[in-house]
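pinned: reference chain
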Amino acid sequence: MINKFKLILSLIAWQGRKKAIVLLIMIILMAILDTIGIASIMPFVAVLSNPDMIYDNKYLFSGYIFFNNFGLVSSKQYIFILGILVFILVIISIIFRALASFIQTRFSLTLEHTIATQLFRNYISQPFSWFFKKNSADLTKNIISEVNLIILYGVTPVINIFAQGTVTFGIVILLVIADTNLALSIGGILGIIYATTYILIGGPLIRIGKQRFINNEARFRVLNEALSATREVKIFNLKENFINRYSGHAKLIAKYQALGDITGLAPRFVLEALLFGGMLSTVLYLMTKSGNLVDALPVISLYAFAGYRLLPAIQSLYLSFAQIKFSTSSLEMISVDLSSLLPKNSNLLEFSNHKIIKFRNEIILDDISFKYPGTKISSVKNISLKIPFRSSIGFKGVTGSGKTTIIDIITGLLSPDTGTLKVDGQVIDDKNLVEWQNLIGYVPQQIYLSDTSLASNIAFGLEEKNIDLNAVEKAARLAKLHNFVINELPDGYMTLIGENGTRLSGGQRQRIAIARALYRQPKVLIFDEATSSLDSETENAVMEAVQSLRKSITLIQISHRISTLKECDTIYSVENGKILFNDS
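pinned: its C-alpha cells
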C-alpha cells in the first residue's frame, strides 16, 4: 500500500506543489472547524440541562458578563445566544466543508486533464517505430478510460484519506478528552471491524480490478475493429458477432465494477446493524457512570453529534483504501507510461549550433541500413544515393522490397541503424529533424480524412480559426481539385465530407491528400504508393496534377507500377532492401 501511495503522490505532483499545499491547508482547516463545531455541542447541552453552570464555570460566566453589558438580563436569553453561536459555528463548518470539497473536486478533475494531456503528449512524441508494437485502441483506452479511473479510484481516495483522516483524528482526540475509556472501546471495535474486512478483501479487490482492466482493454479493441472496418462488417454480416463480443466484455466490466464498489461498502451495512445497539449501550454506560441522565446528557450529545460525522468519515476512509486496491492495475500502468515515456527536451542551445535547413542542393543517403525492432533481417542494406534539388525520383519494387522503409528514413520517421541522412551536407538528427520535416509534403496510399469540412482536411491538424483559406485554395488549385470544389460541393471548401471521405471518390480523396501535402508549401513532395488503388484513368488524372509541380518542387515517388514512374528523372529498382540499378 505504501508503494501505491507513492505512485499516487507522484501523480498529484503533476498538478504542482502550490496547489497541493493549498488543498492540504484547506483540509486541515476543515478538520479544525469540524472538531470545534462538534466540541461546542457538549458545553451547550450541559448549560441547557443545568443553567446553574453559567455561574459555576468561569468561561461561561465571563461570556454572560460580556453580554450583560449589552442589556442581557436573564440566563435564558444567554442560553438562547449560546445556541445561536453554536448553530453559526456549525453552519460555518459546513460551508467551509463544502468549499473544501469543491476545491478537492476541482483539483482532481484538473489533475485528470493534466495527466491525460501529458499521457497523450508522451504517446504522440514516441518514435514512429514505437507504434509498431502498440494497439491504438489500447492507447485511446489509457488516455480516456484508465486515467479517469485512477483519478476516481486512486487520486481522489488519497485526497479523501488525508481529508477524512484529519477529521477523524481531531474528533477522536476530542472524544478521548471527554471520556477516554469509552472512546478507546468504541475506537477499538470500529478498528477491528474495518481492519479485518480490509485484510480479507484486499487480495480479491486487486484481482477484481485487474479483470476490469483486461476486459476494458478488450472492449476498446472490439470497438476499434468494428468501427474501423464497417465495410467488411456489413459485407460479411459480422454485426452480431461484434455486438456479442462487445456486450460480453461490457457485461464483465459492469460485474467487476459492481463487485469493487459493493466490497468497499460492505462494512457500512454491518455498522448500521450495530449502530442502534451501540448507541443504547453508550447511553446506559454514561448513565451508570454519572448516576443520572442530566449529568450524562452533555457527553451523550457529544457522542451522538460526533458519531454523525465520525462514522461516515471512517466509512469513507475504508472505502478510499478499498478503491486504491481496486485501481492497482490501472495505476501501475499509467504511472509507468507517464514516467518512462517522457518526450525528449529540446535543447535550444544545441539547436543554435545548426545551420538553418533550406534545401537548395541535394539529399544524400550515405550507406544506410535499418532493421525493424524484433526482426533479424535488415529491411534496407547499405543504401547510398543522391536526390538533387527539384528532381523527380522514383522507387520501384515488389511489396516488402524496402521502398517505404527508404522513404521513412528520408522523412525522418525512422532513424538508420548505420549510415547518415544528409540535406545540403548537414546530417539530419534529433536536433534538426523537425526543421527538415517542415520542408516535406507526404501523400500516403490511404489518406485519413476526418468528418469535418474540406478546408479542415486540407489544413489537417489546425483549428478552423487558424486556417488560411487562401492557402487552402492555392493548394487545391495545384492539386487540380478547385474546379470540383466550386462546381460540385454545395458549401465549397466548407462542405462536410464524412468520416474518411465516404462521400468522395478515390481520385478525389487522393487529390485532397495532394492538396494537404501542398498546403504546407513543401520543398519535397513524397508519394508513397499514392495511386496504387486507383484505376488507370483516375491515376493518369492524378499524376497529371503531380507532374505539373515538377518545376517548383522535388518529387519522390514509390510505386510497383513502372507506368506511374515514367516521367521521373531517375528510377531506382529496390529488391530485398538493396538498390539493384537505376534508370536515368
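why pinned: The chain has a mean pLDDT of 83. Strands lie at 362-370, 380-388, 392-396, 418-423, 426-427, 440-443, 524-528, 554-559, 570-575, 578-583.
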